[in-house]
Specification:
The protein is mainly alpha-helical and 123 residues long. Strands 1-2 form a two-stranded antiparallel sheet. A hairpin with a 2-residue loop joins strand 1 and strand 2.
């Protein structure tokens, strides 16, 4: 991990040797919420470990950014104000690829009026 310190710093992960096989994490991406820090850092480090063997540096960088983005995303059941929802939709509309997350999952789905009515048993 420490051999890739500069690479990790580009993504907001700052760490130093703490003794033995231990590293001290001093900085994390600012987009991670407090409850996501440990899992987010561990996932980034695992992707780095696994990706070093099979990915080019640019592919690995994309994977790292995708991991941080997904970890920072709004989760199911999380409550947002109307203003937060509007801001997120405005930001999504400004992206180059608004229809999928970095891991290719859909961010927008289209439902016909008939399908929507059927789902709410209004037909």
């Amino acid at each position: 991990l420490l051999e890739n310190d500069e690479f990790l710093r580009r993504f907001g992960v700052e760490m130093e040797r703490f003794g033995g096989n231990t590293v001290l994490v001093r900085g994390v991406p600012s987009t991670l919420r407090n409850d996501e820090i440990e899992g987010g850092v561990m996932e980034v480090l695992e992707r780095l470990r696994d990706g070093l063997k099979i990915l080019t540096p640019s592919e690995l960088a994309r994977e790292m950014l995708a991991t941080i983005a997904c970890r920072s995303a709004v989760k199911a059941g999380e409550r947002l104000s109307e203003a937060e929802m509007e801001r997120l939709l405005e930001e999504l509309a400004q992206t180059d690829l608004p229809f999928n997350c970095p891991h290719s999952r859909p961010t927008i789905v289209r439902l016909s009026k008939e399908e929507l009515e059927s789902r709410f048993r209004r037909r």
